[in-house]
Structure formats: C-alpha cells, structure tokens
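Repro case for the chain-ordering regression, as requested:
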Amino acid sequence: MTTIETSLLLAAVLVVLVVGGMRVAFATALIGFVGLFCVFAFDKGQGWERGFITAVKITGQIPHSKMSTHVLGLIPTFILIGYLAYYAGLTKALFEAAKRWVGWLPGGLGVATVFATAGFAAVSGASVATSAVFARIAIPEMLKLGYDKRFAAGVVAAGGTLASLIPPSAILVIYAIIVEASVGHLLLAGFLPGAVSALIYGGLVVMLAKWRTDLGPPVRGFSWGERFQSLPGAFPIVAVVLIIIYCIYFGWGTPTEAGALGAFVVLVMALFKGMKWQQLRGALMESAKLSVMIFTMIWGVLIYVRYLGFADLPGTFADWISSLEQSPMLTLLMILGAYVILGMFMDAIGMLILTLPVTFPAVMALNGGESVTAADSALGMSGTECAIWFGIIVVKMAELCLITPPIGLNCFVVAGVRDDISVQDVFRGASPFFIADVVTVGVLIAFPGIVLWLPRLIIG
Amino acid sequence: MSSHNVIEDDSALSSADRKLFRIESWLNLAGGLLILAVMLISVVNILGRKFFNTPVPGFIDWLVQAVPLIAFLGIGYCQRLGGHIRMDLVVGRLRRRALWLFELLSIILIAGLTVILIYGSWNHAERAISIGDSTIDINLPTWPVKLAVPVMLVLLLARLALQIWGYWRALSDNATRPIAVPLIEDAAAQAAHEAETVSGMADDNESGNQAQ
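-- result from build under test --
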C-alpha cells in the first residue's frame, strides 16, 4: 500500500470514528498516531518496534510543544471576556440604547435587537448564549408591542450568529493558528464583514416590516437627550471592540495584550456592577473548561497534521483540486457548499479544526499558491490576502449553520427559553436571515475588498 | 457548570466518580485562576511598557509556560462532563446496549491513546530535566510544565477508567440511564441547559441574585 493510499484509508477510519461519536480531538490524535507509526515502521523501514517508539515519542511531545506559544493565550482571555460580559450589565443597557437610537425604523425593535445582539455577541463571542440572553430580554418587549411571534424569535436566533466576525472572535484566532496566518490581520479583517452582516440583517428587518406591516410597529418618542443618556451603559462593548482594533492597528500591543485589556475592562465593569466570588468562580470554571475543549481539539488535530505532513495528503488533494477543469471560483463554491452541509451536523469550531488542514492548502492552491501575487492569482488576491479572506468566509459559513435545521442550536435555545414558541416557528422566523447570510457571503466573495480593506492598511 | 448530564447514586462507582470530580473541579478552577492571572499580567505588561517603560520581566516566558497548563489542568473535568466536541447525530439515535457498546469502545480507544500520550509526554519531560532545558528570556526551567502534562493525563486516564467501568455496567445491566457517565443530550436539552446557565448570569442584579 502506498503512503497516499494509507492516508486515504486512515482518513476514512477517522470519518467512521467521528461519525461513531468518538470525541473529535482524541479521534484525530489517535489516527495521527497510527499514521505516524505506519510512516516510521513501514515507509521509513524502522520496523514495528522502533517505528512504534518513534511514533509514541513524536505524538507525546506535540501536546506540550504546540501549546507552548503565547498566541494561544489569546483564546482563554477572549472566552473570559464572554463569560464576564454577562455580569457587567451590558445586555439590557445595550438593548435600551439600540431601542432609543434605531427604534423609530419600521420593525424598530427588531432592528434594535439586531444591533444589540451584534454588539453583545461580538464581546461575548458566544452565539448560542447571546440568543438565550436576548430571548429573555428582547422577545417579551417585542411581543408586548404586538410583534409577530415568529419574526421576534427569528431575529433573536439570527442575531446571535453575528458573534463570530466582530473582534474579539475566538474562532478567528483558532483559524489563524491552524493555518498559521496572522491573528492580528484576521481580527482586523473580521470587523467590516461583521458590521456589514449586521447592517444587512437590519436592512432586512426594515424591508420585511415595510412589506408586512403586521410584523411590528416602530417605537417612537425618544428625545435626543434620552438617546445620549443611554450611551454610557453600552460603553464597555464599544470600548472592548475599539481597544482590540486600536491595539492591533496601531501596533500598540500584541493581540494577546489587547484581548487581556478588553477582558480587564469587562472585569472592572462586572465588579462595579456587584459581581460576587461565586459568579466570578463560575465564569472562571466555564472559561477554563471551554479553553481546554478548544486546546484539546487543536493539539489533537496538530498530531494528525504532523502525520499529514509526512503523507502529503493535503498536497495531493490540493494538486487534484487545482487540476480540475472548471473555474476556481466554482470549485471554491463547492467547498463552501460542503461546509454548509457539514455544519448542519457538527459544531462550528470542531468542523473548522477538523477540515482546515486539508481544505486550506487546497484553497490556497486554487488561488495560485501561498506566495502568489494578486496579479497572477486566480481569485484576484495575494496568497496572504487569500488566507485572511478565506478565513472570514469560512467562519461566516460555520455560523450560518446555527440557524439551519436539524441542529441549529440558536433556534433550539430560543424555543427553549420561550415555551410559547415552537422550534419550527423559530426556524421559520430565522429563514429570511439565512437567505440574507447567503447574500452576505456572496457579497464578500464578489467584493473581497470589504474583508481586506483594514488588513491591507497594515500589510501595505 | 453543573454536572446535570451525569447521574449520581450511592454506589461505589458513583462515590469514586464524585471523589475524582472534586479533584478535577479544583484543577479546573486552578486553570481558570491561571487565565485570570494571564489576563492581569498582560494588562500590567502593556500598561507598564507604554506608560512607565517597564514591561513585566520575562512576560512571554511566563505566558508560554501558562498556556500548556491551561490546556491540561481541566482536561479530566471536561471529559467528566462530556465537554469535548463530538458528533452525536448517529450515536444519539442508538438506545441502551447498542449505545453503551459504542460509548465503551470509544472510551477504550481514548484510554489507549492516553497511555501513549502519557509515555510520550513523560519522555518529553524527562529530556527537559536531563538537559536542564529553560526558557529563552529569563531562564525559567521548562520541566515543571512539561511534567504537568503526563500528570494531568494520568488523572484523565483515571477518569476514563471510571467511564469504562460505568459503560461496562450499563452494558451488562442494559441500563436506560447509567451513572457516572455523561449522557447524550439532544439539541433541545443542550439549548435548555445553555439557557439555564445564562439565566444565572442575568444582567440586572435582582434577577442575577435570585438565580444564584
């Protein structure tokens, strides 16, 4: 059996293990180990015993050595920001500010919900939790004013998905680490597409409310004084996002320091709001657990990636993809389509970490390689830019699956909080936003400049 | 987080599970405190560097030592609560014996991998001890953190042994809701728990205190 045949067989076994319910991190690590054993025992002719020992030693050092990097320190701090944000009194203040500023629009409370969830989701970084929080805050207010139940639930479920792109975004950091791209560039790149997504959602709410006047009335009657009074409560959200963008853009600090500064602002705010030790302890326990989950996925996959390096499966896949007699854009769309299908059955972080070692080199090859210039590339951007752009697109695709059946968790969480709204109703209410997301992805593909404008200012 | 998806009773298995969970919880909390420490030291570093021209000595060294600890201190805790990512669409449809058999096989494979990782990471730590490996900037010895990896993996192995026991018992008894193992939750149950967790984190103090 050739090296490549072995790697295909092991990839098939990996799929069986993952579908069979084995924890993804351990399944990838196990297959990585078996692959390394095959490489050393057979391909390199070390024999069973020496091959086994070599594979054990390589496998055993990866968890520590791959975790020993300061960039990874960013992930726990971003997660901590999210958990602390619940205690910092941000959600109601944000909703109130959004209501006063944009409530006058058709479907005004819906628009306010979109911007409040976008702001909170950005800081909390947790899509599902954001939907849960706003299901309790925004839906009762909307229903009180006679908003359509499905519409209200759909806005909240979809609003949570805006978490992934606006900094601080843990999932973009994970992407950057897996594909070895610049964390700072990725975080900067996410800002505009995240804002565009929120604007498209807001525009959609206005259009829907204009088209069907029974969906929900505008909320008027706030004076400018009242509007400005509502701003200080929402300040930490803006502060965290601006601190991170400012630090990275002006080189004031590393992304890790920027994240820590953001977390510190939210911690101070939470303490000021009377957070107790039990609550801080809860936030720390959850942050630690989620960090472990993500780190385990990363080192598990990196064991597999070490094996893939020996087997050159990504290279072979990339060669095959770029040899296809069809336009690179069509191939890219097919890869993205595969992500939509996979995302319907799998958690976004798991899906990305598992697939990127193979899909990323393929997409880079489609564009013309890592060192290609924009002029010579197939997709009109340099290798570095393509790595950033693909990250934003793929993360947006992963989040989109949070509002699609059968396991769109955001919809389940809204239905879970509101006993009077069925999960089918939430899925139906969220469906216009799914279409809006597809349009957003289309816009980001057609106009990569939206993604690349901020990072280009730094890259030059 | 509560242990809502792990059932407890007064059996020896459940008692061992609870004792180990206490240790795992402390270690996970230590991981959380380390995250807090990393955050604070990073803030001191950036503010110290910018305003007083005095960054924290060996900041990167400390950070690089902290991350692997954060990655491993809570590994058993996460496994106890079924927190590691999996795809349960297929196994979630299985019932009783078929389900416990799948779970048992998967945990045995993870246990096998863990043994390999313990040996490999111990070897990695041993080498650091023998050559006196240290960090680049302020020469912190690297072996304590390297050694923490196999130690945490041994605790994970203990957790996996308990889960093998739990699933084996479930398999023999054809149990519907076995003890000391994380039970699969469907999307609705996961969502309900998510909502429950967040409802304890209300933004207004009144309801926040009530929920606590």
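Ordering looks correct now. The radius of gyration of chain A is 23 Å.
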